[in-house]
Amino acid sequence: MIKQILSKEIGDYVKNNPKCILLDVRTEDEWDNDGRPDGEKNGLKTYFLSLFFSGRILNENFIKEFKNLKID
Fold this sequence. Notes:
With about 70 residues, the chain is α+β, with helices and mostly antiparallel strands.
């Protein structure tokens, strides 16, 4: 199940859902400007995969790249 949660809720969420992962789908510009979350600090396996490129151009390879991550 995919669930969007606030960053301040991550610690409690991970404690209650230890097998969850963090999938950050922001753009590389957002990662560069806002930073990347340190999911492992909170016990999360973390993946970075852009849904859009700069200028909000859809990443047409998103599904293929997501499947290549082999996330259970």
